[in-house]
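Quarterly update from the structural biology core.
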Amino acid sequence: MNIGIITFHGALNFGSALQAYALRTALVNEGHKVRIINYRALDYEQYSLIQVRHPRKLLRTLTHWKSFHSRWSAFNSFANDYFSLTDKAYSSNEEGALAELAAEFDCFICGSDQIWNLDCTRGVVEPFFLSFAGDKRRIAYAPSLAHTSFKPENFDQEKVASLLSKFDYLSVREEETLPLFQPLVDKPIDVVLDPTLLLGVSDYADMSVKAVVDGEYAFLYLLRDCSELIESACRMALDSGVRFAYVSDRDLPIPNSINLFGIGPREFISLIAHASLVLTNSFHATVFSVLFHKPFRVFATDKSGARMRDLLYNLGISERCVSLVCADGIAPVDWGKVDLALGGLREHSWQYLRKALS
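Predicted structure, tokenized:
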């Protein structure tokens, strides 16, 4: 089958890039021909290297040009190697042109990532609900709503209901978000895994084989500000002398650490694969810590922590998640039990996807 995917593929964000890679790879492994639609919504501008409308960002980029350019190049290289983007790029100003894709693809999939987080997209972005798909099959695979409520000005329930009604198969990534959309549509909405978890470690082998950092290190990945996480790392560095590697557009006050800002998704995978332990408040850093069987601790200190808490609960390792400063040693995990639980969740997700494509 010839499949077109629409998602957040252009964000300079490790999770966004890797979920796009994973969903396409999973489908290609099933024998489908798959391309990612090169659609750029209104917020795409924030990922431009030069942002003349934002003087502060521009000044920061120019001041740290080498690192910012390296980051931009790494993400673009990753997209060129793995995404098989449509030849034409579509902007938010020409959404009508997306309708021409109905002649090219047999089926369209929207997902994963936060394309249905209406506060993030500042309202309903209709292409992320496959408004352009014509009479072709529509499938939602694990789009994230992220929140359990939206600002009223962003949540046009009548429009969402109309768009959802046209889908052949519906799913979301977080069970606790179901009450937002399920009342708007008669079709059942399933809950499935983020596509990065559909794959096994071998599917990331070419990214993980080469170490980014020599010697032993712990990896810290801070997706949002979290003082508890940074303080925990500082205490661990002082108490045990562990060396930390991290990725941040600003230097963090962690003793004996190295900032690797400028790397891309491939190096992100490698850093987790070779780390002695991982501290994070990122969903996808949590995912890859699980896949690579790494000692890890998740700091879920804000509303975005629900994604990590749900995943860890379903895997039977909720104790990995903390909300306070914690520099204690990380207890061992029974990875056999975790893999068994993950296998069940993975099988359910594959059943949904294969049924939707049959």
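The chain has a mean pLDDT of 92.
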